[in-house]
Amino acid sequence: MVAVMAPEVPTTGRQAGPREIALADARRWFTLGVLSLLIAGTIALVLVVGRIPGLSHLIDTAAAKRSLVVHVNLALGVWFFSSTAGLFCLLPGARRPSLSLPAWCVATAGMILFSLAMFFADAEPVLSNYVPALDHGLFLGGLAVFAGGVCLQFADRRLVAPGASPLLPPGAVAGMRCAAVVFVLSLATVFAAWATQADGLTQWQYFERLFWGGGHLLQFVNVLSMASAWLLLLSRVLGRVPVAPKLAAGLMLLLAAPALAGPWLAARDDGMGLFTELMRWGIFPAVVVLLAACGRALWQARGSLAPGALTTPAFTGFATAACMTILGFLLGAGISAETTLVPAHYHVSIGAVTATYMATILALQPDYGRPARLRRVAAWQPVVFGIGQTIFGAGFAIAGVAGAERKKYGAEQIVRSTGEWAGLSVMGAGGLVALCGGVLFLAVLVAGRRAQRRAGVTA
User: Fold this and answer.
1) Would you tell me which of 14, 214, 276, 291 could form a disulfide with 190, CB atoms 3.0–4.6 Å apart?
2) How far apart are CA 446 and CA 264, in angstroms?
3) CA 78/CA 110 separation, integer angstroms
4) Reported pTM
């Protein structure tokens, strides 16, 4: 199944050059990300059932929470940071030998290890924010191994190699290098929190403080990587660099700058509240300016775009993610209590990142020698996923306004009002639509791979 889903780099009988090496390295990471998304989506079915009124009693609460922990770490950890590593591989400086293959092997082993922990009844779930955990050596070890694999990929010479990338516009090159640095800073922040843990903490307090700061910094990684992918997508829509390189690089540096304080804040007793302010004010200004610049570029090019440029996954993926990002900001601004308005905000926000990565992988298919297949489906796929994820978030928001508590699954969930019942039902419907979007994504990849084989292109 992995081989079918993975994009292949066509061979030409000559020694692979930097472009071919970059695409081959990126292919591995994108494959790992797609596989993790497939597993996470399967697990999500259990979680959706555990939230739907009338069916939630069918799901064991402890099993649902263990499933939730693994689902989140696959969908928000492996999928996101494998995609980030894949985009990093497209930076200039690719050559053999490199750290990419061993780094990928380490990360894959880590994913397998922490996923297996879900089946251990003594793996107690701790629903800490940003990085929920299972209090079990296999899970924690696997998570550390995966993070180490990604970090090893970022140690590649591409982090500092001069020159231009044949696949990424200049602003995206700056963004991906910033994303790599911030990822390493997030691990340093987790280490700083671990080294300064106080005695007498409860299990939840321990894991909450351990991952709180690093988890906040990982959101900066996600936004930097997503913004870089936006520039890649729009460069293919416009046929040119969408945002002036100096402006784009400056915005990327502005996004990355707050992360420098991460390890220092993690060691402070009052650091947790400061991380919240860091993310609240450190992300949206630069993103809004970048989106405005992207919108301006599209408006200026409205009469000169190539035929069909607006009916490609590159455009629909960017447009969908941009709308979801703005909606995520608005939902986040409305949070005032620990209700399902919180997951409404982050499901829309992370849905924007996922839609961006899906569109990016689809837009890169021609670079892997795959003939275009299911073009109309490919163009609509990010939209279908985005609509489903938005409905999913809207359901959570409706339930949250009615007072529904977050992090309640199975028999633990008590629906007390019509508003909660309606919101959670809408959430379930949105989840099914988003799942259909995920299936369409896989269908387009499979169709392209089959067409490649029929065309006789080998890898």
Assistant:
1) 214
2) 46
3) 10
4) 0.90
